[in-house]
Model the fold of this input.
Amino acid sequence: MSESDFKNEKQQRARLGQKAGMTGIAFNCMLFLFKLTAGLLSHSMSIVSDAVNNLTDAGSSLLTIYGFRLAMKPADEEHPLGHGRFEYITGLLISVIILLAGFDLLRSSISDILTGSEAPDISAMSFAVLAVSIAVKFWMSHFYRSTGRKLGSTAVEAAAADSLSDCAVTGVVLLSAILNATAGIDIDSWASLIVSAFILWSGWKELMETARPLLGGRPSDELVHAILSSVMEDQKILGVHDLVIHDYGPGREFATMDAELPDSLSFRESHLIVNEAERRVESVTGVETTIHADPVRIGDAKNDETERLIRNLLVIVDPGMTMHDFEIQEADGKQTLTFDVVPSPANQTPPAQLREKLKRVIASRLPGVELVIRIDPFSVR
Done:
């Protein structure tokens, strides 16, 4: 992908993101005003709470637009990798605002339940507003989902799930209004409590979702597969390990890895092979890549036999463990085995304990051999 293509893709992404944000602001502000009016006229705390829920959605859309614009800023001296993470930061701010609104509504709902509140007087307008709100939110869910897939934006796709959940929340408020109007059963404060609990749940879920890339979450399996497949197209590359993907915002990922090459190749040949692999990865995935050429001894019977033995012994300790960078060194009559291992995701043994366990198992079959084992927990499997 050329620099101009990358820039055009970012601009198109920003335009679609801003369009989604503007749509969210317009419809959520409209629903907020209608519900607030209906809630105040009918003295219904649950409808007012649902209106506040729509207001937080509008605020989320506003911050989404701002985040997309900030993320579009080009790299500068202080931010050489660009400003893409602003999109994640604005998502984090959105979740905090939602949580604050949810806590305030929760406090008001509990107070009304404990002290009592005026029974609501639900009008036909209130029923109409709630019914229209469900229909609008259902359409918005479809709109956000299709836009989110085009953008590859978790924030926009999360808005789709949130809009669908809003349909259910407004449905609870509508049910409360129906029970009040037809049977005289007043559960308005309890319905408001349910709405506030939903707002808190939505805020917490969004907080976890937006914090994940900032904390260095695991990349998608699709991206990992695309990178590895592109690298392994060259049959001279025997394997790949130590793949690490750094996320600096949507469309600004960087990857580093080691590619195993026969040690019979010259330094120049290895360099040309990994350079071509880097270009393949970038053209297919858009991920800028740096590959280190890792020489592997081929055709040495003793080396191959020892390596097979070590791999079989690793299975005893952890069936899902993998090994790379295996090397046999001999000096002054002493043999040293050096290698890295990647534990399986389910293996939670502390590195120091795991290393000692591996040494005990291997020493039982290869006494007198010195072992240098590195536990590598960061490689993407």
